[in-house]
Structures are given as structure tokens and as C-alpha cells.
């Protein structure tokens, strides 16, 4: 299982890449494997400012629909529109082509609840 060490993770199985005050968010390799073949990603919150833990969208797989939760407080400034035509990118490339949103972080965004790769690996028992 792929768990890049340069990313941070949530207990909701999302990954976060923080570069300055921009965070890129997607679901982990573990999450996409548990969901199965992803057929649709819906994010209708672009342009909105949401608090950490609020639902920002959903991911639909053949057998289930799962909510996507904001890992940090901020404004959703971009949705990966390529996923509209290629939702399978989340399965095939969860950390690269399968990213879902970019967030403009609040200046006081609290990253203390995010997990490093080792803590996430322990969480999923890998």
C-alpha cells in the first residue's frame, strides 16, 4: 500500500499536501481500495469557505457513496475537473491525478490533528 511520507493524513482517510497557504486534498490509496471502482466525484462547494470536518463533497463507487470531509478550515479554490470525465483517476493515481480539491487555508488553520505517514499506517494497520 502506498503511503507517501511527504503528505499528511486524516482519520477519514484523506491526504493533504500543504504548500504555503494552499492545501491539495484527495483520498488515500487505502480509501480508494476500500471503496472499489470510483464512478463519480461530486464537489459543489467550490468557492465556499468551510470549517474542518464539514462535508465538502461525495465520492461514489460501484457499491457505496461516501462523504468527503474538509481536513482543515479554508476556502475551496479549485476542484479537479478532470475527475468529471475520469473519476477512475482516484483509483489509478490517488496522490497525483486523483486529487480532488485545493484549499486556500485560513491563517490560523489548525494542522495539529493531521497524521504523519507512520501514524496513518498505524491507524489502518498496514
Overview of the molecule:
By secondary structure, the chain is an alpha+beta fold. It has one domain: OB fold (Dihydrolipoamide Acetyltransferase, E2P) (Beta Barrel). It is about 20% helix and about 35% strand. It has four helices and nine strands; from the N terminus they run E-E-E-H-E-E-E-E-E-H-H-E-H. The longest helix has 8 residues, at about 115-125. The model has no long low-confidence stretch (mean pLDDT about 95).
Write the layout of secondary structure elements.
Layout: E1 8-9, E2 14-19, E3 22-27, H1 29-35, E4 38-42, E5 49-50, E6 55-61, E7 65-69, E8 74-79, H2 82-85, H3 89-92, E9 101-105, H4 117-124
Antiparallel strand pairs: 1-2, 2-3, 3-9, 4-6, 5-8, 6-7, 8-9
Keywords:
about 130 residues; 6-stranded antiparallel β-sheet; 3-stranded antiparallel β-sheet; 4 helices; 9 strands
Largest sheet at a glance? Answer: 6 strands, antiparallel
In DSSP terms (H or I, runs of 4 or more residues), the helix count works out at 4
Give the strand line-up of the largest sheet: 1-2-3-9-8-5
Helix and strand content put the structural class at alpha+beta
Instruction: Show unreliable segments.
Output: none
Percent helix range: 10-25%
What is the CATH first-level class name?
Mainly Beta
Number of strands: 9
Using the CA coordinates, give the radius of gyration: 13 Å
Order of helices and strands: EEEHEEEEEHHEH
Going by CATH, the homologous superfamily would be: RNA polymerase II/Efflux pump adaptor protein, barrel-sandwich hybrid domain
Average pLDDT confidence is 95
Strand content: 25-35%
**Shape by Cα distribution:** globular
Straight-line N-to-C gap? 8 Å
Would you tell me which CATH topology applies?
A: OB fold (Dihydrolipoamide Acetyltransferase, E2P)
Instruction: Assign the CATH architecture.
Output: Beta Barrel
Count of the domains: 1
Amino acid at each position: 500500500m502506498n503511503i507517501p511520507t511527504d503528505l499528511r493524513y486524516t482519520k477519514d482517510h484523506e491526504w493533504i499536501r500543504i504548500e504555503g497557504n494552499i492545501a491539495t486534498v484527495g483520498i488515500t490509496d487505502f480509501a480508494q481500495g476500500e471503496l472499489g471502482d470510483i464512478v463519480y466525484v461530486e464537489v459543489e462547494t467550490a468557492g465556499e469557505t468551510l470549517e474542518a470536518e464539514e462535508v465538502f463533497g461525495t465520492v461514489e463507487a460501484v457499491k457505496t457513496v461516501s462523504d468527503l470531509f474538509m481536513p482543515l478550515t479554508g476556502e475551496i479554490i479549485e476542484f479537479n475537473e478532470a475527475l468529471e470525465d475520469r473519476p477512475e483517476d482516484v483509483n489509478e493515481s490517488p496522490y497525483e491525478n486523483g486529487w480532488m480539491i485545493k484549499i486556500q487555508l485560513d491563517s490560523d488553520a489548525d494542522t495539529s490533528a493531521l497524521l504523519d505517514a507512520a501514524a496513518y499506517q498505524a491507524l489502518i494497520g498496514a
